[in-house]
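Reviewer 2 asked us to include a model.

Predict the structure of this chain.
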Amino acid sequence: MKEIESGAFGHIFISDYVFDETITLLRSRLNEKKAIEVGEAIFNSEIEIIFMFKELFESAWQLFIKRNKLSFTDCSIVETMKSNGIKYLASFDKEFNQFKKEIMIVN
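Predicted model (structure tokens):
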């Protein structure tokens, strides 16, 4: 995390889907206060939130149809990265390894 925060991999981006999953998980596993705290921290940081738009949604859907082991959110991450020229992905999810030619996994 320190390397990511230092900018070693470039500017930090998350998608609106990742934001959604993060605060929803925090609310269900911890509490609403923690979810709001993390959400506010993201909004007040240098992290840029990339929002899904129709064409990106459709390309994520096509990837979802082809790659049935990925969640739709994971497909949206891959397509968001491709459409925005983002090369590095911080993830422990092994399903992203199938995109090693397109994405560099940081974990």
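Helices lie at 2-6, 16-29, 32-43, 54-66, 72-84. The domain at 2-106 is CATH 3.40.50.1010 (Rossmann fold). We have added this to the supplementary material.
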